[in-house]
Amino acid sequence: MTQAVAHVPSGEPLLKVDDLVVEYGFGNRTVHAVSGVSLEVARGETLGLVGESGCGKSTLGRAVLQLRRAQSGSVLFDGHDLTAMQGEALRKMRQRVQLIFQDPIASLNPRRRIGDIVAEPLIIAGVKDPAQRKQVVYEVLSAVGLDPDLVVGRLPHEFSGGQCQRICIARALVLNPEFIVCDEPVSALDVSIRAQILNLLEEMKARFGLTLLFIAHDLAVVKAVSDRVAVMYLGRLCEVAPSEQLFARPAHPYTALLLQAIPVPDPDVRPAESVATGEPPSPIAPPSGCRFRTRCPRADQRCSAEMPELREVAPGQFAACHHPLA
Amino acid sequence: MATLELSLPEEVEQPVRRRRRLGFLFWFAICWIVIVFVLAIFAPILPLQNPVDMDMLERRAWFSSEHWLGTDGLGRDELARLVYGARVSLTVGLCAPMIGLVAGGALGLLAGYFRGRFETLVVGSMDVLLAFPPLIFALAVVAYLGQSIPNLTFILGFLGIPAFMRVSRAATLTLARREFVIAAEALGASHARILLRELLPNVLLPLFAFFLLGVAVTIVVEGSLSFLGLGVPPPMASWGSMIGEGRESLDVTPRLAFLPAVAMFVTVLAFNLVGDTLRAITDPRQGAL
User: What gap in Å lies between CA A64 and CA A53, rounded to an integer?
Assistant: First the structure.
């Protein structure tokens, strides 16, 4: 079976995930968290990854960084297969790929000072000169909008969530990485702070030439930052398309459902009648064929018999559906 | 739809350092511990009488200018025996939990971080150790290796390892899947670095609070063992053995049992108080968010 991949428009992709499968044992059962996901991220691009809670998007993000080992499939970063790497080689490679977490306060060690936390990657990378480390830490803290002199000597609990996320971004940037996985970086923040952090990420992306994999469940956030968007449902990709195109003309019924669910800030607009009902099925026993068929209004015999592969339904737009909308 | 506002540089306000009131009891406890330590450390150069010199004409003497706290059943100076007894009680009371802290703490940290078979092995062997009757173990060691302070310290320290292991493992388990540990892993930190830099500073605090509790418990247990005759060899004094000897004349001179009991009680209380207060003031989460 040949698997179509949502290819990037041009050039060699920086990240190429191929048929990645991640499963965890859960008692004597298996949770199929990620089942055969293939995607590519071009250099300098922001790929948004959306889906419901528990659809495997965070697992995918962590499997890309090898924080959770995949059962099968490969993750090619700049031509190197990360899944085949071990020990020292992997630790070296990790300096080029960074991660930002959902809970900024939990991702800072409560007992270490900010200066040490931000300098930690440099120490691990083997920068021996303290003066040089201090200079880099000061630069990167200023870049994320914090006053280094006021910040370095203090502990994480003295900062707000937004400030902690700035510190986390500073720590991720201090080694000058090429690729950052942002795992719901603004979900835990106040709405008023979100825009600031998103702007900061955009600014840093331009300044440091970053490529981002932006994981979120909030479509508005994803639309604001992404060049392309991948929609995930129960461990599989439903649709991959350029951001504008996906929001204007969704091809997969699940994408359409998600877009319908965005609340409209107008009391006179009645919410559209929901086309899908119920909870997503359990990833322990996913449905046969198309995983969305149990909630899909267009599902028929073929959907339960045959698993749909990603195919190009419009230029640049890929959907895994037997009956695409567009 | 989110409208992106211009990001404003966030003001970081100056830290406000609030003085915490530590209270009278804490300072009383500190004073008592300092006094006991000073007396115990400088016992040989203090103008005390010899704690093992007997004076058969002055048996169970009342307080006097010669014997400030009187004499015991063999006419030995009670004050000198109390001070020398503090040396034994503190040596054993501090060294034994130290063994538990280092061995148990390290085992718990490794078990909680690496999980898997190693954890099963550690937890299983600690359960075996806990199930073994401690008094039998103490008797066996004393019978084979003899009665001495190092042996006593070893017995009590060894018996403390499972408890320290559990405290350390429980603290590590809650921390090891926290984001900051995963972040360190994502940065390419080695296991040793994650254990020492990320986990240890966070595990050390509950361990230290438990250590002070351990000191208090060990002093009492040392007293019990000495009371049973398994502790320090006579005529050396320890608080426990003094209570044991005082028991014989409880109806005539109850103070011979009560004075060391009071010394032990106040010292144990002081360690507990200091442990509690230190834990409370050094918890960084207190007052956060």
Answer: 19
